[in-house]
Design brief:
The chain has 352 residues and is mainly beta. It folds into two domains: 4-14 and 241-351, no CATH class; 40-231. The chain contains two helices and 24 strands. The strands form six sheets. Strands 6, 7, 8, 9, 12, 13 and 14 form a seven-stranded antiparallel beta sheet that branches. A six-stranded antiparallel beta sheet has the order 2-3-4-5-11-10, with no helix packed on it. A hairpin with an 8-residue loop joins strand 13 (194-207) and strand 14 (216-231). The protein starts with a strand and ends with a strand.
Amino acid sequence: MKDKRRIGLISFLQVASFILLVAFFWGVLNYSLSAEVPTTSKADDLTPELRILLNAFPAEEYVWTRIGTNPKATEQQKLSEDLNVIQDIWHVPFANTRHAFRIDFYQQFKKGNNVLHLYLKADGDENTGRKTEGTHKGVDYMFTLIDGDPNHSSTRLDVYDSAGKSLRNNVTIIVKDKSVYLVAEISILQKNSKSVFEYSATSYTYTKETPTSSLKTTHSNSIPYTKCTSMGVPEKTNKSLLINSGMKLTNGNVPGWQLSGKTDSRSVYRTDTVENALLIDGLFPHQNVSQTVILEPGHYLLRAHIKTNSFATGLYASTYRMHIGVSDNYKWVELPFNVTVGKDTSKKKTFL
């Protein structure tokens, strides 16, 4: 018999701060950015799904700041029709540690045999972050998109802590028409109510002689490190450690959450409009709805407002588990758990 589980609000009772980092840079053809004053634009492109992923307030008006534009995009596109040439780069802050970047391209973004990198020096101190000589010294974050595929195993956010140790953190990447959205928990220096940071970006195409051989760059365009000032973090922010803690359904998906075995699953998401809850039909044993977060060491509490008709339902946090009994009424289920420090990092990925 199919299992139906209703899942309501999930929240954390501890807020962690994030110090993130960056890794390796590819670049071949550099150019100078326009010296014009950064412009702003109302963030009308933020769909309900994007707002959920950004932990943005539904009714809040947000503004993109253009932090760079490429005056040579038309000329560079002539290098190759397959090259994703960067046109403009935009930034918007949504919380103290949650920021979004939108990279607009000269033409429709093409997938396959290409790489996109965005590097950030976010704390104003080149003695922290990546420990290397040259232009990448002090890099705190590096976003990587492989083949235009947000689900590619090598699509990621690499982070360096203050001591230079690297960690891979969660990132939400959305490819839409001529734009790529990058959304993550990162800390950017705030001065005089403005976000102040330095960035660099590169986009290139590649070939491989064999599936296991190294990438060979064929065409590339890149933006050298550029200092910029953008909008400061808003006073009203959503500080939840979870993406989409209310488990809102949009376009048939629950942004921020992954359903295990979804490709061959019969599970169906629905919204219970009466209870304002997520209803999952056909969730079988050993399937789960989860997300992974990066947490600092400490004690946490995971809470779920839930009811279920299955004895197999449970609440998980890493190796911790709380059994949820069958009930006709919603109830709060609380799971205390502890995050310990590893030898290689001050933070730890936690499966919820």
